[in-house]
Amino acid sequence: MTVDARVEALIRHIEKRRRINKFFYFLFFSATLVSTISLIVIFVTLSYESLNFFTQVSIIEFLTHTKWTALFAEKHFGVLPLLNATLITSLIAILVAAPLGVMIALFLSEYASPNLRSIVKPMVETLAGIPTVVYGYFALYFITPRILRGVWEGLQIHNALAVGLMIGVLIIPIVASISDDAMKAVPLDLRHAAYALGARKCDVALRVVLPAALSGVSASIILAFARAMGETMIAAIAGGFRSVLTFNVGEAMETMTAYIAQVATGDAPHGTIEFQSLFAVALFLLLITAALNYVGIKVVRKWAIRY
Amino acid sequence: MGYPILTEIRRSRVRLKKVLDRLLPVILSIAVFLAVAILASLLLTVIISGGHRLSWNLITNYPSANPNEAGMRSAILGSIYTVGLSTLICIPISMATAIYLVEYSRGGKLSSILSYNISNLAGVPSIIFGVVGLGFLAYWLGMGRTIITGAFTLAILTLPLVTVTSVEALKAIPDDLRHGAYALGATTFQVVRYVVLPRALPMMLTGGILGISRALGEAAPILVVSGLIFIREDPTSLFSKFTVIPLQLYNWISRPQQAFIELSSAGIIILLLVLLILNGIVIGLRYFLIKRAGQL
Amino acid sequence: MMIKSYTQLLSEYLGPGKDKMSDSSEPEVVKVENLKVVYGDKVAIDGISISFKKHYITAIIGPSGCGKSTLLRSINRLNDLIPNAKVYGKVYFNGVDIYSKDVDPVFIRSRISMVFQRPNPFPFSIFDNVAFGLKVNGFKLTKDELYKKVKDALVKAALWDEVKDRLDSHAYSLSGGQQQRLCIARSLAVDPEVLLLDEPTVSLDPISTARIESLLRSIKDEYTIIIVTHNMLQAARVSDYTVVMMPDDHMVGRIIEYGATKEIFTNPRDKRTEDYISGRIG
Q: How many domains does chain A divide into?
């Protein structure tokens, strides 16, 4: 074959290849759109059903009333008791997860040998892989009766404290793994510079690495808090379905997620206000967690750019 | 040396520092120990409570009011159906998304918006997927509270996780190989098909398995989609009503009788064993891949 | 089959009214006009104008960071693969502006092939590595034709004798020098007109280097070869023409001298070339 004939064959074939490539380009591109479309569907579905809800219940009542009695004869739709329960359990959770998670991260990034690290890290991450039903079970049948009741006799069987503690364990890996990444990203130079000035290892860990990784650490805490707010099964199993505005963590209280679970498992028929209230609560939860995630991701990116 | 007090203070501070320097790793490892201890006590509690309830009945029988006969056959089948179908939906979409983001778009503005939305989707609480599955798929689209609705819900729920792993798998392939193929006149699709994908596939597979184990453990979204129902028959089609293992466990956990609580412990042991096996496969695959990468 | 001229084919491929071809007897296969390449907001090379003559070996030399590789990667549009790389100016291949929007970079790359700094064979067998280009470019070949093509390429790349008994073994079982010759064979198998080499011997030992240099000289009658190197002796040994590049005060790569290799090395016009060649720069 001469060069020219070969080029002719090449040109003939290239159109076909181009078409195949284009076809797959569109296929792959459409697949990429699925996530974005899903987000839109989530938002539209929740908004539409909530709109039906808010034509019957004013937003003011929803946001300010202190009673949530959707499943009773005399109905009040004040989200505050649910929001309060969600915030209290999430706060307890973050009080557990933040110190433990940051300590584990510091241990992994500064002290653990590569071998130890490769054992400990997956073990810690296992905590996030355990089904949350199991945590709920553990909170209800071990933490409350065996541990908490030992020091606090008046504790109710269903209580916010045990829920918060268990969610805390669940989100330890989120704090630990993002913080660990942030600490690993602190340049070695910075550590060496501190050692060159006569710093000890604890100085380097606490005064150089921790402050330098602070934005990553705070992002991990924000993201973990958002995850805590969305946790359902632990709250549904160990927190009870009692929607009362209280600050006593020894009492049962119903989180937003537990309420959604309660309505969905009950027999509220499609189209009733109870059913629609489920979407309003879901939308409210989504907006809060989305705002938290937005801030969290923004902080993570900022720190990612710095190093 | 004119100020002996200052020297004394400095000395004691140095001593303090030395102690702290020794103590810090100990304090930090206590945190690690605590996390591991919680994990261990959780497993122990479950095994002590439910170990003696493990039996074939648990797998082969339908749920029953009699705890000695009750099993989770319908839940196991429901889990296999929904999670299996969701995997079939999720893995191709995730792989295609990862291929678009890494191989085709090469970091434009549009692709950064699209990948940002993937992390947004990852941040949506899992129960919201259930609520939307119920509102949009079950009622608006009329798919009902069925296996197929559950499968789609789980597929979208696990999509970000599996996509991120697939993206990492593709990014681990050195650019050298891609450029070598491009320099011979390969199209992007040919580069993906012949050079990138064969190499990245096992690693992508680990993402798929992680997605499966996440979907298997999810109770909240399925709870909303299917409701908490009592099923005493095998699913016959994708439009059957269904329940899944974590929901059956939730059902047993919520009952007052001790026997059912023990039964739930036994069920938890089985669920955790399945997850353990899946994670073992992931770790094994990764180990194999790292070893292979080291050889070449 | 009626054999059309190359220019004719290209103009058909590009469609009517887009005939920007010059005479095909033009000895300049690749012609670069006022090329500027920007990565993000950093200008890598600017004001590059140069022609590469058909069936000669041209060396591009210069200190590291002067944009030699960038220039090379502009010639087969490999810069397209780098995010935020922007190319301004013209690059003509047989008279066609390869950056005009009608031209498919895939076509350009199958006619202007490239060999890289580090050997990058595919994780397949030796045979499949060489056959890869034929496969992706859609050459319809029988088993025997394919075998012959692969063999020819390996012979040209001076690798045949070493691998003929183990074509099925994995490419990674070859030594670094053999891998690089495999990459050259892989490129030659698709019968490109131009072969670009980006410091092909930088990671190899002197013996492998000598082998590759002699194979380049042996194939130069069939191909136009452009080789980037920072090894001046290599440029002197293998090339007919030499381009000298140098970063300016803003670290933007520019061509400071171009001419017959003999001229450049014996009688450089530019003071900086003289300094560079005698080892005072770089």
A: 2
Asked if B269 and B51 count as a contact pair (C-beta separation under 8 A), the reply is: yes
- How many other C-beta atoms are found inside a 10 Å radius of the C-beta of residue A200? 18
Residues of chain A with Cβ-Cβ distance to B120 below 8 Å are 39, 290, 293
Q: Does C181 touch chain B (CB under 8 A)?
A: no
**Token couple for B121:** 């989707």
* Cα pseudo-dihedral B63, B66, B69, B72, rounded to 10: 20
Please list the pLDDT of chain B residue by residue as tens digits (296 residues). 557 777 777 788 888 888 888 899 999 999 999 999 999 999 999 999 998 889 888 898 898 888 888 899 999 999 999 999 999 999 999 999 999 999 998 767 888 899 899 999 999 999 999 999 999 999 999 999 999 999 999 999 999 999 999 999 999 999 999 999 999 999 999 999 999 998 899 889 899 999 999 999 999 999 999 987 788 888 889 999 999 999 999 999 999 899 999 999 999 999 999 999 998 898 888 888 777 765 54
Name the one residue in this structure whose structure tokens are 């670069």.
Answer: C32
For the stretch B10-18, contacts whose Cβ atoms lie closer than 8 Å and that sit 24 or more positions apart, written own/partner, are: B17/A200, B17/A202, B17/A203, B18/A200
User: Which residues of A are less than 8 Å from B217 in CB distance?
Assistant: 129-133
* Residue A77 DSSP symbol: B
The answer to whether C123 contacts chain B (CB < 8 Å) is: yes
In this structure, the answer to whether residues B9 and B110 fall within a common structural domain is no
* Contact state of B177 with C172 under an 8 Å Cβ cutoff: no
Distance CA(A200)–CA(B222), nearest Å, equals 52
* Domain count across chain C: 1
Is A127's CB within 8 Å of B39's CB? yes
- B135 and A21 within 8 Å at the Cβ level: the answer is no
> Any CB–CB contact under 8 A between C147 and chain A?
no
Q: Is any Cβ of chain C less than 8 angstroms from the Cβ of A2?
A: yes
CB contact under 8 A, B184 and C136: yes
How does strand C241-247 pair with strand C57-61? parallel
Phi, psi of C33 (to 5 degrees): -125, 115
pLDDT tens digits, one per residue of A36-60? 999 999 999 999 999 999 999 999 9
8 Å CB contact between C52 and C31? yes
Please give the pLDDT value at position A270.
81
Distance from CA of A138 to the nearest CA of B (A): 7
Distance CA A218, CA A211 (A): 11
Are B76 and B198 members of one domain? Answer: yes
State residue C196 phi and psi, 5-degree precision.
-100, 135
Domain hosting residue A47, numbered range: 3-56
- Whether B42 and B82 map to the same domain: the answer is no
**Residue B5 corresponds to which amino acid?**
I
C4 and B CB contact within 8 Å:
no
CB A61 within 8 A of CB A77: yes
